[in-house]
Write a structure and sequence with these properties.
The complex is a heterodimer of chains A (105) and B (117). With 105 residues, chain A is an all-beta fold. Chain A has no helices and 11 strands. The N and C termini of chain B lie far apart (38 Å). The chains are: A mainly beta (105), B mainly beta (117). Chains A and B meet through strand 5 and strand 10 of A and loops of B.
């Protein structure tokens, strides 16, 4: 299985801050890496797919990048609606696996 | 995005079978080639891939659950089903159905299932 290691596990940020979340894969993989946002009591919401492609309807302050086995989600300027938990997920090989999550509070 | 409506019991006895359904209310579940997946999340925990079914045939399961899980399509009801046999307390979680083959772009609201006697 490809293990996905996210960091940090949590972070404290303020509205307007630039936020960066990292996800490292245990094996070399292609860019089949996706990012989700989850709020309490809700299902995850797809933000970024294939490493850097913005899902329809997602604000442009969200962006994704990749370098080898390292993937990054960036929120350029944190909005009040952006607080929650973020997960990365790989679909390069089965079983698909998720990072352990990063809580933005 | 499609609307996915989940149904099933919120309490299952140990050693019994957990059965959930996911009804797609917009469009046919078999029109086109894509996947329908099940994901679960224990309370306060992370996300775990359970498996998926392909509209053109075939399934894929997480090896950790493969001996106990079946995912199937019922095109007459426009439903995706999940069956998980011989459940234990470790199977207590919120179960989500989702559309996608890799990236998961539409999710059901989730069904919280507790395994307890």
């Amino acid at each position: 299985d490809i293990q996905m290691t996210q960091s940090p596990s949590s972070l404290s940020a303020s509205v307007g801050d630039r936020v960066t979340i990292s996800c490292r894969a245990s094996h070399i993989m292609n860019n089949y890496l996706h990012w989700y946002q989850q709020k309490p009591g809700e299902p995850p919401k797809l933000l970024i797919y294939h490493g850097s492609r913005l899902q329809t309807g997602v604000p442009s302050r969200f962006s994704g990048s990749a370098s080898g086995t390292d993937f990054t989600l960036t929120i350029s300027s944190l909005h009040p609606d952006d607080f929650g938990t973020y997960y990365c997920q790989q679909s390069s090989s089965t079983p698909w696996t998720f990072g352990q999550g990063t809580k933005v509070e | 995005q499609v609307l996915l409506q989940q149904a099933g019991p919120d309490l299952v006895r140990p050693s019994q079978t957990l059965s959930l359904t996911c009804t797609v209310s917009s469009g046919s579940i078999i029109s086109g080639s894509f996947y329908w997946s099940w994901i679960r999340q224990p309370a306060g925990g992370g996300l775990e891939y359970i498996g998926r079914v392909y509209t053109l045939g075939g399934t894929n399961y997480n090896p950790s659950l493969e001996s106990r899980v079946t995912i199937s399509l019922d095109s007459s009801k426009n439903q995706i089903s999940l069956n998980l046999t011989s459940v234990t307390a470790a199977d207590t979680a919120t179960y989500y159905c989702a559309k996608g083959g890799g990236l998961l772009d539409s999710w059901g609201k989730g069904t919280r299932v507790t395994v307890s006697s």
